[in-house]
């Protein structure tokens, strides 16, 4: 069970780093050759792309976003793993008087590899349940 918990922790670190706009911590959970794909947002590749994703998310959200996950299923096969879970994105805008609300929902499908004692994300695919046309144009690739 330790590997499964370590994989979930890696994904939790991803969520917290992205929400906090911490590009160094975000890059640290990805392999050098990683890819991150979310339909209307497009694909970001390698550490430079992941840094760009972090910067974009911080600029658009203004730090007012929380990615929460649930229903984690982890399959480990040696030094590779697959994580599947649900996503609920919570956002708000105090200046506009908009309180916390669900800004999006979907699911993650994540491939990871073990590097030493650490699990790293090699490929992350995000599938949104809502209408991709409703997404803020600033997020679209």
Automatic annotation (TrEMBL):
> Which Pfam families is this protein grouped with?
SnoaL_4
- Enumerate the spans annotated as SnoaL-like domain: 2-124
Q: Report the InterPro entries cross-referenced here.
A: NTF2-like_dom_sf, SnoaL-like
Reading the lineage from the top rank, the first entry is: Bacteria
**TM region positions:** none
According to UniProt, the name of this protein is Nuclear transport factor 2 family protein
């Amino acid at each position: 069970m330790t590997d499964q918990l370590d994989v979930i922790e890696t994904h939790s670190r991803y969520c917290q780093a992205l929400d906090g706009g911490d590009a160094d911590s975000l890059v640290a959970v990805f392999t050098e050759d990683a890819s991150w794909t979310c339909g209307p947002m497009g694909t970001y590749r390698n550490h430079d792309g992941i840094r760009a994703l972090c910067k974009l998310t911080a600029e658009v959200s203004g730090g007012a976003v929380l990615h929460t996950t649930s229903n984690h299923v982890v399959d480990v096969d040696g030094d590779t793993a697959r994580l599947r879970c649900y996503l609920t994105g919570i956002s708000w805008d105090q200046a506009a008087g908009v309180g916390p609300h669900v800004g999006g929902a979907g699911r993650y499908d994540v491939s990871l590899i073990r590097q030493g004692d650490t699990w790293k994300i090699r490929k992350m695919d995000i599938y949104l349940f809502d209408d991709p046309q409703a997404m803020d144009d600033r997020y679209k690739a």
